[in-house]
Design brief:
The complex is a heterodimer. Chain A has eleven helices and three strands. Chain A is mainly α. Chain A has two domains: 7-117, Muramoyl-pentapeptide Carboxypeptidase, domain 1 (Orthogonal Bundle); 121-235, Arc Repressor Mutant, subunit A. Chain A has a three-stranded antiparallel sheet with strand order 1-3-2, with helices on one face. In chain A, α7 crosses α11 (187-198) and α8 crosses α11 (187-198). By secondary structure, chain B is of the alpha+beta class. In chain B, β9 and β10 (409-419) form a beta hairpin. Chain B is extended and about 100 Å long. Classes of the chains: A mainly alpha, B alpha+beta.
Chain lengths: 236, 452
C-alpha cells in the first residue's frame, strides 16, 4: 500500500515558502519590467524586440540587444503598418502590438499608470475646442493666434490664472456663450492648440481679438490693434 | 347649424388657447428654474470672493503684526491661497471683461507678492523696509476693496444686484452694462486710482514683459523677401518669393511676410515675422497638412539642429520634444561655453513626412539675447549634488542658465532623478545652493514630453 502523502509535513518545509516568495517576487519583477525602449537603449528587452521584428520581417540587422538606427527604422516601419504613432519609441502601445506585452502589466505598474494621468491633455482639448469655435474657418496662423491670446492672458494679472478659467470666463468668448465651442475640433485645430501651448505667438502679445465685420462693443475699439489675420483683428 | 359650427370652432380655439397657455407656463417655469440655478452659481462665486477677500485682508493685517518667521511664512501662504481663490471667483462672475480687471489684477499681485514672501520668510529672512511698505499698501487697498464689495452685497440683499440680468446688457464679446456690471464697474473705477504694488514677482508691473526693441539698424523693407526666403527651409528645386503684407505692432515690433513657391503649388503661403530692428526672423509657420509619418524623432531632431546651424545661430541642444499629429516640435536651448541656456530657447517643428522644418519660434530667444546672469558660479557640481534630496539625483549635475521670476536668468546645476517611477529635474542655484525649481517630466499626449 502506497504511503499516504504527508501534507502537513510537506507544508511545514521552509524552503517551499522561500521558493514561493522568490517565484512571486520574480513574477512581480517581470510584471514591472517592461521598459520604454528608444534609440541608444540596450539589454534583454531590446533583444526580444529585435527577435520579434526579425521574425516578422521588419528587421534585417543583427539581433544584438542594442537599439541602433536599424532597430529604430524597423520599429517605425512596424508602427506605421499598425497605425501607431511612428516615433521610434517602444512604449506600452507598441509592446502590445508586438504581442510582447505581459498581460495586465500596465495596470499593476502603479507608477507609470500614475505618470500617464499627468499631462496637459485637457489644456490641449480646451484650446482646440476654442480655436475650432472662434477661428474654425480662419488661416492656420489665425488659429494659432486665438490660442496665443489665451496663453497671453495667462501671463496677464487681469485674467483668470488657468486655461479653463480663461476660456469659461463668462462672456469672454462668443463661441463658449453660444455653444459652438462644444463642436469637435479638427486635426488642424488641435495642431494649432499645441503650437500655441509650445510658445508660437503670431499676434505679438495680443489679449483681445474680434471680427470687425460683426457688431462688437464700442469699448473694444479703444484697444490698440496689433495685427490682422484673416478676418480677425488682434489687440492689446 | 351655424351656431353649432361656431361652438365647435370656439371649443377648438379654447382648447388651443389652454394648450398654448400650459406650454407657455411650462416654458416660463423651466426658464425660471434654469435662471435660478444659474443665479445661484453666480451668487456663490460672489459670496466666495467676498469671503476670500475679507480673509486675505485680515491675514495681511496679521502679517503686519507677526514677529516670528514661521508664523509669517504660514500667514503669507494663507494670503496667497485666499487672494488667488478670490481672483478665480471674481473672474467667473457674469460681468463683461471690462468691468472687474483692476480688482482681478490687484488680487493676482497680492497672491504673487505673498508667494515671494513665503519663500523669503521660510528661508529665514525677515521683510525689508520696502516689502513692509508694500505689505501696508496691500493691507489698506484690500480693506477698501472689501468695503466696496460689501456695499455691493448690501444692494444684492435689497434685490439690486441681480447677477443673472448682467448678460442681458452684455451681448457680444465685451462691453455692456447690467445692474451687477454697474456696481462692479464703480469698484473698478475707484481701484484704477491705486498705484500697482512694487515688488519682485512674475506679475509685478516692473517685471511684466513690455515692448522689446532688438539691437541693430532698422530692417530694410526691400530686404524682407530675401531674408524670409533665405531663412525658410526650402524644398530643393522649388523657387520661393516673399511678400510684405503688413506691420505687427506688438511687444516685439515686426514686419509680416508671406512666402510662397513660384514654380510649385502650395496649400497656403508660409507666414513669417521679421523683427523691425536687426532683421532677425521672429517666427514662421507653414500651414501645410502633414498627413503621413515616416521620419523617426531622432532623425527629425538632427534636422532641427542642422536647420539652426545652417542659419548661423550657433550650437543648440534639444531639451524636449512633443508630437502634434505627424509634426515633431522640438525645444532647443542655446549652448555657450558648454552651458545650456534655458532662457534662450527656440522651438522648431519638423514634418515627419519629409523632414521639412514647418515652424520656427524664436521670440524668447531674441528677447533674452542680452540677458546677463544675476548670480555667479561658486559651487561645483559635486557640492550642488549634495544639496539634492538624498537618493533622487542620478548622474552628475550640468551647469545651466534658467530664467528667474524677475525676468532675468540664473546659473544653476540641473539634476535629473526619479521618484516612484516619475522623472524630475531639480535646479540648484550655483552660487548659494538654493533649490530654485523642480520640474516634473511627463509624457505629452500624442507622444514626446512636457514639463509641469
Amino acid at each position: 500500500m502506497a504511503r499516504a502523502f504527508r501534507w502537513k509535513k510537506w507544508l511545514a518545509r521552509p524552503w517551499l515558502y522561500l521558493t514561493l516568495v522568490a517565484g512571486l517576487a520574480a513574477g512581480a519583477t517581470a510584471v514591472r519590467a517592461q521598459p520604454t525602449l528608444y534609440w541608444g537603449t540596450q539589454g534583454d528587452w531590446v533583444y526580444a524586440l529585435q527577435q520579434r521584428l526579425y521574425n516578422w520581417g521588419y528587421y534585417k540587422g543583427p539581433v544584438d540587444g542594442s537599439f541602433g538606427n536599424l532597430t529604430s527604422h524597423a520599429v517605425v516601419d512596424f508602427q506605421l503598418n499598425n497605425g501607431l504613432i511612428p516615433d521610434g519609441i517602444v512604449g506600452t502601445d507598441t509592446w502590445q502590438n508586438l504581442a510582447l506585452a505581459i498581460p495586465g502589466a500596465a495596470a499593476p505598474a502603479a507608477a507609470p499608470a500614475a505618470a500617464a494621468n499627468v499631462s496637459d491633455q485637457s489644456n490641449v482639448n480646451l484650446l482646440a475646442h476654442l480655436i475650432g469655435g472662434e477661428a474654425g474657418n480662419q488661416p492656420f496662423d489665425g488659429k494659432v493666434g486665438v490660442g496665443a491670446v489665451v496663453m497671453n492672458r495667462l501671463r496677464d494679472a487681469k485674467f483668470p490664472r488657468t486655461i479653463a478659467g480663461i476660456i469659461y470666463q463668462p462672456y469672454a468668448f462668443e463661441s463658449v456663450t453660444n455653444g459652438v465651442f462644444n463642436n469637435p475640433p479638427t486635426p488642424s485645430d488641435v495642431q494649432a492648440a499645441i503650437a500655441a501651448l509650445s510658445g508660437w505667438d503670431p499676434v505679438g502679445g495680443a489679449i483681445y481679438f474680434w471680427n470687425p465685420a460683426k457688431m462688437v462693443s464700442p469699448w473694444i475699439w479703444t484697444r490698440t490693434i496689433i495685427t490682422q489675420i484673416g478676418q480677425q483683428v488682434f489687440a492689446r | 347649424m351655424d351656431r353649432r359650427k361656431w361652438m365647435v370652432l370656439g371649443g377648438l380655439a379654447l382648447a388651443a388657447f389652454v394648450v398654448l397657455g400650459w406650454w407657455g407656463q411650462s416654458q416660463a417655469a423651466s426658464r425660471g428654474s434654469v435662471e435660478a440655478a444659474l443665479t445661484g452659481q453666480y451668487q456663490r462665486s460672489f459670496y466666495a470672493a467676498l469671503d476670500n477677500i475679507q480673509n486675505a485682508h485680515v491675514l495681511l493685517g496679521k502679517a503686519m503684526v507677526a514677529g516670528d518667521k514661521v508664523q509669517l511664512a504660514d500667514l503669507f501662504s494663507q494670503v496667497r491661497a485666499q487672494a488667488f481663490a478670490a481672483q478665480e471667483n471674481l473672474t467667473q462672475m457674469p460681468v463683461p471683461a471690462t468691468v472687474e480687471p483692476r480688482a482681478a489684477k490687484f488680487l493676482t499681485q497680492v497672491g504673487d507678492f505673498a508667494g515671494g514672501m513665503v519663500r523669503r520668510t521660510a528661508g529665514g529672512q525677515v521683510l525689508d523696509q520696502g516689502q513692509r511698505n508694500t505689505l501696508a499698501d496691500l493691507y489698506r487697498q484690500s480693506g477698501q476693496l472689501n468695503q466696496q464689495l460689501r456695499a455691493a452685497e448690501g444692494q444684492s440683499g435689497s434685490g439690486r444686484l441681480y447677477l443673472a440680468d448682467a448678460p442681458a446688457g452684455a451681448k457680444g464679446r465685451v462691453g455692456g452694462r447690467g445692474p451687477a456690471a454697474s456696481d462692479l464697474s464703480g469698484i473698478n473705477t475707484r481701484m484704477e486710482k491705486y498705484p500697482g504694488p512694487v515688488y519682485d514677482g512674475p506679475f509685478a508691473e516692473n517685471v511684466v514683459r513690455g515692448r522689446i526693441t532688438l539691437p541693430g539698424p532698422p530692417t530694410a523693407m526691400n530686404q524682407l523677401g530675401t531674408i524670409a526666403v533665405n531663412f525658410l527651409d526650402r524644398v530643393p528645386g522649388v523657387r520661393y518669393q516673399g511678400r510684405y503684407t503688413g506691420s505687427v505692432k506688438g511687444d516685439l515690433p515686426a514686419y509680416r511676410v508671406q512666402v510662397s513657391p513660384v514654380n510649385s503649388r502650395a496649400d497656403a503661403p508660409t507666414t513669417m515675422d521679421i523683427a523691425a530692428n536687426g532683421g532677425k526672423v521672429v517666427w514662421y509657420l507653414d500651414p501645410r497638412a502633414v498627413s503621413r509619418g515616416g521620419w523617426i524623432v531622432a532623425r527629425a531632431r538632427d534636422k532641427a539642429l542642422s536647420f539652426l546651424g545652417e542659419r548661423g545661430m550657433g550650437t543648440f541642444v534639444s531639451t524636449f520634444h512633443r508630437l502634434a499629429g505627424n509634426v515633431a516640435i522640438f525645444s532647443l536651448a542655446r549652448v555657450e561655453g558648454g552651458v545650456t541656456d534655458y532662457a534662450r530657447q527656440v522651438k522648431v517643428s519638423v514634418a515627419l513626412d519629409n523632414g521639412q522644418v514647418v515652424g520656427y519660434e524664436g521670440r524668447d530667444y531674441l528677447a533674452n539675447s542680452r540677458l546677463r546672469p544675476a548670480n555667479k558660479v561658486v559651487l561645483n557640481a559635486a557640492q550642488a549634488g549634495r544639496l539634492v534630496k538624498a537618493g533622487l539625483a542620478a548622474g552628475p549635475g550640468a551647469l545651466v542658465l534658467i530664467p528667474d521670476d524677475r525676468g532675468g536668468e540664473l546659473y544653476a546645476y540641473e539634476f535629473s532623478g526619479r521618484q516612484d517611477g516619475d522623472s524630475y529635474l531639480v535646479y540648484i542655484n550655483a552660487q548659494n545652493g538654493k533649490e530654485e525649481r523642480i520640474l516634473r517630466v511627463a509624457p505629452a499626449p500624442g507622444g514626446g514630453q512636457v514639463t509641469l
